[in-house]
Amino acid sequence: MSAVEKAGFVTSLAIGAALFSQSAIGDPASGTVSYQSKSGPIVVTVKNVYLVTGPDEVSGKLIRRLVFSSADQSAKIKACAAMSCADSGLGEGMTVDFGAGSRLNYWFVGNAQRIQYSGTAKPEAAKLVADTPRRLAGTLTLDDSAAGGAKVNIDFDAAVLKEFATAR
Predict the structure, then answer these.
(1) Over pLDDT 70: what percentage of the chain?
(2) Which one, of 71, 99, 102, lies nearest residue 87 by Cα?
(3) How far apart are CA 8 and CA 29, in angstroms?
């Protein structure tokens, strides 16, 4: 094998490895979700975000859901057959639904799901720089701590990881 052929082979391997590693992890997110529990403060450092689309469990309406997590959830989400499965294994993080109603619905979990809080936020809590059917990017900032809820500040950029079939 010539030096040029070796260089091309090595480049192909590097590109393939980069593509494989990108598909094996979530899209980038950074920030925190804080929650004051009865036993003390819980702070989740968000590192990953996943965008899934499918039917809302209540209305059957097509929605987009961001799943924010501290640990990689991509393989589990890709293996899911139903929208409700996409966040069932989330132990530390939160979900936010876009398109389920006039407000953003969210669910926070911490301490291996021992702590849970759900609420709604004004759509303005999400300052989006990209808002397409296949991508959401921007900043999510909300503070429901006065009502006993979560305080959130997360930057994210997510492309659709999984599309679930619409309700019949």
Answers:
(1) 83
(2) 71
(3) 33
